[in-house]
């Protein structure tokens, strides 16, 4: 199984289940505490993950531009419904890194969120290369 090693420039984590906070801080190039406050305003509870509705709300707060909702998974279908996005063919993370070389992105994969900055993965650990992207927002 192939894995992608994240960049060493990832944001330091202060609690558990905070991948959305770390991803937003990296994507927006802001402090962890600012990203935490944004996610908390959108509905995040301490030491808990976030659902798709709350993540979409946070992206609206920070004016993230939806790049696409990819594939036909249940999560992607639901996100298309709440964002009115069109269908985009499924995309593996390794291909997302290849095609989105410029810019800062907040990326949702199944059960996790991460950031991609200028084609570099920003996360706290290794990520499977073949995992599919569910949705991405650009900053």
Domains (count): 1
State mean pLDDT (0 to 100 scale): 90
Question: What is the radius of gyration?
Answer: 14 Å
Uncertain segments? none
Order of helical and strand elements: EHHHEHEHEEEEE
Structural class: alpha+beta
Q: How much helical structure, as a percent, in the residues?
A: 25-40%
Q: Tell me, briefly, the overall form.
A: globular
Question: What fraction strand?
Answer: 15-25%
Would you report the number of β strands? Answer: 8
CA-to-CA gap between the ends? 31 Å
Main sheet? Answer: 6 strands, antiparallel
Descriptive account of the structure:
The chain has 139 residues and is an alpha+beta fold. The protein has one domain. Strands 2, 3, 4, 5, 6 and 8 form a 6-stranded antiparallel β-sheet that branches. Strand 4 and strand 5 form a beta hairpin.
What are the defining features of this structure?
single chain, 139 residues, 6-stranded antiparallel sheet, two-stranded antiparallel ribbon, 5 helices, 8 strands, globular
Give the SSE layout.
Layout: E1 3-4, H1 19-28, H2 32-41, H3 52-61, E2 65-69, H4 74-83, E3 91-92, H5 93-99, E4 104-109, E5 112-117, E6 120-122, E7 127-128, E8 132-138
Antiparallel strand pairs: 1-7, 2-8, 3-8, 4-5, 4-8, 5-6
Helix pairs in contact: 1-2
